[in-house]
Amino acid sequence: MTAAAPAPPAFGTSRPEASRMIADRAADALLKELDAWRKPGLVSRIDSGSHNDMDADLLATSAETLRSFFVEFAAAGQHDAPMEELRELGLRVEAAMLAARGGVNMHRGAIFGLGLLCAAAGYMQSAIVPSRVAEVLRRRWGHAIMRGPSPLFSHGAAALRQHGAGGARAEAAAGFCSVHEIGLPALQRDRLLRPDDRDAAAVQACFALIATVQDTNLLHRGGAEGQQIAAAMAEAFLGRGGVGMMDWRERAAAAHAAFVALGLSPGGCADLLAMTLFVDSISRPGERQ
């Protein structure tokens, strides 16, 4: 019996080129998340939202710095690295970023989430289908993700102890269901509705995630009440038509101002939005980004 031929490299390129292309999509997704304006409480090119320790320039520099590290994640996935290797890589990247940024946690969640998705995309080695990225991540590394050590002093770990929130680790082990079941449908549907508005679809996806996801950063900043307030405001925005209405910018800006006044920042949803933008982009490799 003849052995099956190996799958073609991702995007029809060599393995190193595929790793670089995957990494470029990941870093670009972080920049697109930053560019989207009127995301409630979050840093954008316009202002720093509820944050006084970071701004758009710092986040953009961080995203560009991560580009080369995402190459390593994709390459690790290509050679079917075990979770221990991916975890060590993530810890090394996180330590380097924290040292370079004076201890400010700017992209810790993105290093974890986008790093794993880059590994899953690298593992596939062929034309990438969003649902298959989730399946690869869940089947190949899901159990190992949940068995791994939980950091004692992270926002997610604190939220888990106090509020019973699953956090990023549970999301990752399940293949980032929030990306595939909430973020992507909202992004893709509203991009069709407003194809000429580069912000609308990303903002809609962001509000959809805030309305649904238990965000450990919101729990850290505002407790259960802050999480509930944020979800209710996002649901109200969506319930009135979201970005499908002519006044969506004004209503999104009002939600942003309310989040800032309350000191709320859905940082976990920002990471999920970047992951949504990444998975969307790698499933459309031939399109201009």
Structure summarized in a few sentences:
By secondary structure, the chain is mainly alpha-helical. It has helices at 15-35, 56-78, 83-100, 108-124, 130-147, 155-163, 167-173, 177-193, 200-212, 216-239, 248-262, 267-282.
Overall structural domain count? 1
Largest sheet geometry: none
Gap between N and C termini, in Å? 43 Å
Shape: globular
Supply the CATH class: Mainly Alpha
Low-confidence stretches: 1-12, 161-165
Q: How much β-strand is present in the residues?
A: under 5%
CATH topology: Triphosphoribosyl-dephospho-CoA protein
Helix fraction bin: 55-70%
Category by helix and strand content = mainly alpha
Whole-angstrom Rg: 18 Å
- Count of strand segments: 0
What is the overall pLDDT average? 86
Q: In the CATH classification, which architecture applies?
A: Orthogonal Bundle
Instruction: Determine the number of helices (DSSP H or I, runs of at least 4 residues).
Output: 12
SSE sequence, one letter per element: HHHHHHHHHHHH
Architecture overview:
The chain is an all-alpha fold and 289 residues long. It has a single domain, classed as Triphosphoribosyl-dephospho-CoA protein, CATH 1.10.4200. The protein contains twelve helices and no strands. Helix 10 packs antiparallel against helix 11. It is globular. The relative contact order is 0.15. It is an enzyme of class 2 (transferase). GO terms for molecular function: glycosyltransferase activity; triphosphoribosyl-dephospho-CoA synthase activity. Keywords: ATP-binding, Glycosyltransferase, Nucleotide-binding, Transferase.
